[in-house]
Specification:
Order of helices and strands of chain A: HHHEHEEHEHHHHH
CATH class of the largest domain in chain A: Mainly Alpha
Helix content of chain A: over 70%
Structural class of chain A: alpha+beta
Strand content of chain A: 5-15%
Number of domains of chain A: 2
Number of helices of chain B: 12
CATH topology of the largest domain in chain B: Multidrug efflux transporter AcrB transmembrane fold
Strand order of the largest sheet of chain A: 2-3-1-4
CATH class of the largest domain in chain B: Mainly Alpha
Distance between the termini of chain B: 37 Å
Number of strands of chain B: 17
Largest sheet of chain A: 4 strands, antiparallel
Number of helices of chain A: 10
Order of helices and strands of chain B: HEHEHEEHEHEEEEEEEHEEEHEHEHHHH
Oligomer: heterodimer
CATH architecture of the largest domain in chain B: Up-down Bundle
Largest sheet of chain B: 6 strands, antiparallel
Strand content of chain B: 15-25%
CATH architecture of the largest domain in chain A: Up-down Bundle
Structural class of chain B: alpha+beta
Shape of chain A: elongated
């Protein structure tokens, strides 16, 4: 089997695969829509970081007990909404909702006294709610322009139909990451937004390479249009490359995740790595199993 | 010969650049999130004149420089009405905020009354208990609103209305009752501290367009006596100084010529005069800003993150290398040599950009680099897989290698074009951290194109001539490969 996979001589009939994964795709879309509606009407909680909601975070590195944390949470200086601790380190992160500058400084000194650390060793972040909005707005703007370019480029290089399929695959990846974040209650930070944009790049890169291969197969086949033969040839051959590419792309990112977790470091780099990791897996999946059902539909017509 | 030149050009270039960077001791300029420091985003009201924001940035620069003790501050306009201030290396938050702190509005407001005449805030009046003459309480005067009822100072200072402001500038507390602002820091063109004879003087110059306003104001004040003859200089709701109009000013003429001199005495060797002059000159920004974001990263967290990024990158590179060797054998070695040279070139270029263009490597930049390792490795995989496909259909190793390399170039060109346009778009549109990421990704994509065109395109055909034993290239026997 591995040998066959390596040689690209697996004889999977992707027309049948397409039928199965079309159903999977429909189920996924249903889940995406459900998650989206539930988070819009507030049944599911979208865990937005302080960058979007406005407020302050304090990260300290100190010996602590559960009682210490309880005391901080019930201290009346700021409305401390959440805290976060880590298994492998002494870091604690406190998050508080927006307040006046004086109160925030007072809380800083309170923490510094409480945990007996110098206040310059406390990592402090304060953001107004506009900052995250701005990043999101810019991100969306970039997204729209980017997608338009993608459609134009793929239509020019290949076919208009292909560009629509690429769009479906891209959207699939975005929604998959978003739904996972909402369902697992993971925190969405500006880094997550950046990572989502990167995922688009990845997923598209994968899809373009695939279309390129498909184009080659069509050229060398006896038909001048997309046939079952060229579909099967392409995807059987491309399986290994897709696997290899996602392995080599995912390894460096996985090492950030695992190393970060091992060292007990959470922060922008991990915020970034997680959605990327999910996105790469999803991108590899979608470049094959989301595109195939639609390509199969084109053939059937 | 020409072929070997093409193969070796990029590796030699990268080794050359790296040795220059290494011997000159140039290392990447680290962003605030990697070396610790403070980053503040100041946002002005929407629709603020761009020119005013530019002025404000200039003033902040001068002020930070005058403050000293801050290494390589970066103050830049970001977005339409925001200013991004980055003070790397500064971990003393109070100090840094102080350096930026007086971002507020400088105003000139006539003094209407002060606690110097009454002994308590002019907003209050005393009520003596008729039964016990020693029991005295204060109440807010009728008609006065928005003041604290114990000490009688305004809760919210709005320079457009009358307010009561506490000042401790003279060494003891004074509550001033101030009229609405008549002039602002925007009206001043220059202020310097001078010592003409016997005492320090702050010599103040108004802009031509504002000189008339100042004359009118002084005419009015010169008519008054006592506290009402004073003009308060208010910065950020604090009375910095409240000099009185000299008694020789003619009420029908006022102070003319757009200049004024504030006597500062001689007690402190000119320190107060100098401070006041600096405040008058730089103290007020032409617009008021709100701190929409403050981020403080301690040096240790920065270092930890940098190490995490470097270690993760290195571990990633090693695992990818092992994988490539196991899978593609000699071709894997080609890929590893290419990737290493890619890494050296990247490091050198980022260091040089930091040294000569002020490019700072941030966390998101590192993320971009790590992502680009994956993309660069993929270009090799695409080429090698095409090579395999060609051999599979019975082509000779030499022919297959050549065809694969030229076909792969076309595929990678399309795919990289997409990446590059995405990176450019992100860079143009994005703010803050996204830019660092986009730049790293864009540079990496360009390098990837260069390596694919010159290095991979020529080195794969070159090695394919070594042997036609597929064991050297793939983990599979020639027989199995071709017979299929």
């Amino acid at each position: 089997m591995i040998k066959k996979l390596f040689l690209g001589s697996t004889e999977i009939n992707f027309l049948n695969v397409g039928k199965v994964f079309y159903r999977v795709f429909i189920v996924e879309v249903a889940i995406f829509i459900a998650v989206l509606t539930m988070s819009l009407i507030g049944v599911l909680n979208v865990n937005l970081s302080v960058d979007f909601t406005g407020g302050t975070t304090y990260q300290i590195e100190a010996e602590y007990t559960d009682i210490d944390i309880e005391q901080v949470m019930s201290s009346n200086i700021l409305d401390v909404s959440r805290y976060q601790t880590f298994e492998n380190s002494n870091s604690i992160i406190f998050r508080a909702t927006e307040n006046t500058q004086d109160k925030e400084t007072e809380f800083l000194y309170y923490l510094s006294n409480k945990f007996d650390i110098a206040d310059e060793n406390i990592d402090f972040q304060r953001v107004g709610p506009t900052f995250g909005d701005e990043i999101t707005a810019k991100g969306l703007q970039a997204l729209v322009i980017f997608l338009t370019l993608v459609v134009l480029l793929i239509s020019y290089r290949y076919e208009f139909k292909y560009s629509l399929i690429a769009l479906v695959a891209l959207t699939h990846d975005l929604f998959l990451v978003f739904s996972l974040y909402v369902l697992l209650g993971l925190e969405i930070t500006p880094s997550t937004v950046i990572a989502l944009l990167t995922i688009l790049g990845y997923s598209l890169y994968d899809t373009v390479i695939l279309f390129d291969k498909l184009n080659d197969s069509i050229k060398t086949s006896k038909f001048s249009y997309l046939s079952i033969d060229s579909l099967n040839k392409t995807f059987n051959e491309v399986l290994m490359r897709s696997l290899n590419t996602s392995i080599t792309s995912a390894i460096p990112i996985a090492s950030i995740l695992f190393l970060g977790n091992y060292l007990g470091l959470s922060g922008t780099l991990s915020d970034f790595a997680l959605p990327l990791f999910i996105g790469i897996l999803s991108g590899t999946y979608s470049s094959i199993f989301v595109t195939v059902p639609f390509l199969a539909k084109i053939i059937n017509k | 010969m020409k072929k070997y030149f093409k193969i070796l050009f990029l590796p030699i270039l990268s080794i050359g650049l790296f040795s220059i960077v290494y011997t000159q001791n140039i290392s990447p300029k680290l962003g605030l999130d990697l070396q610790g420091g403070i980053s503040v985003i100041l946002t002005a009201e929407e629709g603020t004149d761009q020119e005013l924001i530019e002025q404000a940035v200039e003033i902040m620069r001068t002020r930070i420089e005058a403050f000293g003790d801050v290494q390589e501050p970066e103050i830049a306009i970001s977005g339409e009405n925001s200013v991004l201030v980055q003070l790397p290396g500064v971990t003393d938050q109070e100090k840094a905020i102080e350096a930026l702190g007086t971002t507020g509005l400088l105003t000139f407001r006539p003094v209407l009354d002060s606690s110097l005449t009454t002994g308590y805030s002019p907003a209050l009046s005393l009520v003596v208990n008729p039964d016990d003459p020693e029991d005295v309480t204060t109440v807010v005067k009728p008609g006065v609103t928005g003041v604290d009822d114990v000490i009688g100072i305004s809760l919210d200072d709005n320079p457009e209305f009358e307010s009561y402001i506490l000042s401790v500038n003279s060494g003891y507390p004074v509550v001033y009752q101030l009229g609405p602002a008549e002039l602002t820091g925007n009206d001043i063109s220059d202020a310097i501290a001078v010592f003409p004879e016997n005492e320090w003087i702050v010599s103040l110059e108004f802009k031509d367009s504002s000189a008339e306003k100042f004359t009118e104001l002084t005419k009015k004040l010169a008519n008054e006596n006592g506290e009402k003859r004073k003009l308060a200089i208010v910065l950020d709701g604090e009375v910095v100084s409240a000099p009185g109009i000299a008694f020789d000013v003619d009420p029908s003429v006022g102070i003319t010529g757009g200049t004024a001199a504030i006597s500062m005495g001689n007690a402190d060797g000119g320190e107060a005069a100098n401070n006041l002059a600096i405040i008058l000159r730089y103290g007020a920004l032409p617009v008021s800003f709100e701190r929409s974001s403050i981020e403080k990263v301690s040096a240790t967290l920065g270092e930890d993150t940098l190490n995490l990024g470097l270690q993760a990158g290195l571990i990633g590179l090693i695992i990818v290398s092992v994988y490539l060797i196991l899978y593609y054998r000699i071709l894997g070695l080609i890929a590893i040599a290419g990737l290493s040279s890619f890494g050296l070139l990247f490091y050198s270029v980022i260091s040089l950009l930091g040294e000569y263009q002020g490019f700072t490597l941030t966390l998101s930049g590192i993320a971009g680099i790590i992502v680009s390792i994956g993309l660069a490795a993929d270009s090799y995989i695409v080429t090698f897989e095409k090579f395999k496909d060609e051999i599979k259909i019975g082509r000779s190793f030499n022919f297959a290698a050549d065809k694969a390399a030229s076909d792969a170039w076309k595929t990678i060109l399309t795919a990289d074009f997409v990446s590059l346009s995405a990176a450019t778009l992100l860079y143009v549109l994005a703010i803050g951290p996204i830019r660092g990421f986009a730049l790293a990704l864009g540079v990496a994509t360009i390098f990837d194109l260069m390596f694919t065109r010159l290095y991979t395109r020529n080195s794969v055909p070159a090695v394919s001539g070594i042997s036609s034993n597929s064991r050297l290239f793939f983990p599979i026997k020639t027989k199995d490969l071709v017979n299929d």
